[in-house]
Amino acid sequence: MRSRTISMLLGRACLALGLLLAWVGGAGAVEYSLTAKVGSMTLPDGETVPVWGFALGNGPVTVPGPRLVVPPGEGLTINLTNLLGVPVSLVIPGQKLPDNNTGPVWSDWPHETTTWSPSRPAGNYTARVRSFVHEVAPGQTGTYTWGSFKEGAFLYQSGTNPAQQVQMGLYGAVVKNFDEDQAYADSDTTFDREILLVYSALDPAMNRAIASGQFGPGKAVSNTRDYKAKYFLINGKAWPDPAQERINACTEILPGEDVLLRFLNAGYQTFVPVFLGPYLTLRAEDGNLYPFPKEQYSVELAAGRSVDAWLNPSAEGSITFYDGRVHLTNAGAPTPGGLIAKLQVGGLGVDSQPPVITGLSASPNPTAGASTVNLSGLATDVATGCSPIQGAEYWIGSTDPGPGNATPMNAVDGAFDSAEELIQATVDVSGLANGLHTVWARAQDATGWGPAASVQLQVGPPETVTIYKTRYNRLRRTLKVFARSTASAGSVTLTAVGFGDLVYRPAMNDYLGKFRPVASKPGTVTVVSTGGGSDTKPVPYKAP
Length: 544
What we know:
Low-confidence stretches: 1-27
Mean pLDDT: 88
Oligomer: single chain
Helix content: under 10%
CATH topology of the largest domain: Immunoglobulin-like
CATH architecture of the largest domain: Sandwich
Number of domains: 4
């Protein structure tokens, strides 16, 4: 085994994960172990949505998944463990299908109760291909092997029901170079620095529908026709996240260096990165070199594609780039957001600020009767100096025990040795009273302990959601949904699947959703909660 630390979100957060690169004896293939499982993502405005993602071994889910690196001249083997409740698989568009492929997998769509592989029964003309490669059933582990692997940057993603599973976050990036500092066999593709930029988009309503089992024919959200992305991300983050101010993270870029920018699009639509100032030299797409280089200020990045571009900055300073298709807000907010980022050219300088913790979360939250919760987050010094994280700690409640005196947290990869570390702790909540509790965490580097981040933890029994009234007005094409939750007042978000979020009303201690235009009366409506509860009622309905 040999380890490599990469950042959580391709060039940033995955640096905290230890990439265990296992060489297969005599096979010439690097080997990774990935796990598909449930996670959550906190969006720029604080909204949290469920995701399915890949983790390295037993580590936490990251979206995008861990960056995989295939050494020059080698192949790739991925052992995929599936901890989701549905089958998953792995494909890498731009590469051939795995050498050990036993697919495709056919299903009796739309029921999805019977499958056949590698072919459907003779005379069956209604079965559909669900995956072009063999699948891994829930709770099982499968292997995917590529004996030969061409150079370039590619997306790896689930090949099963990709309209659902890629939207949920089952994708990542895999890179192979011709040599340590040369992308392809062409000698003109040498580089000094390499930056990965994975573009994506997210529709929270779609994620909630898929996570709650309300996506598919005859369900609240029947297909991706109603997909409406509200958040647009680069490496899993959106402006004004501090990480976007220095998208190259702790990769130092100096004037005159050749910087290889590898653009990948895991979204469903085309994005157009536009650079203010220097031009780019585009040389390859999907691992295929162009006949001639292209010099331009923008990149047309189609869905599922990758583009390799070279940048040679002439002076120190910031280089801003944005999406030319103007995906520049977070959920329609009036302030700038979305696909804006900056490359910082110049030395890293002297670190004078301690690290911060971002994305602090507790799971399950609400606890729903659980005696322990998993506390996790990202300790980062990328925006404040790039010094290695030295430790992290947490405490519960308003009394701060003082820096260095709280309960230690662990580095997910086993060692505090990089400027970004995924941190984790198992917290015993069995002695906490029911209700809201504040959990605090902070991290340390050579400059000292940083500011504390916090998350609100709802401790209590399993949540119950009750829809007590539904109403549809045909003339106004308006659907109203009234619901209650047993969770503490306003501590959870209730969502009418396929329609949107309900608003908490303190005076009534209930939640109301008013949605329009709704073209026709739905037969039923399902409300799901971030606390885990759900309920389905017909339309119209009034509790007795």
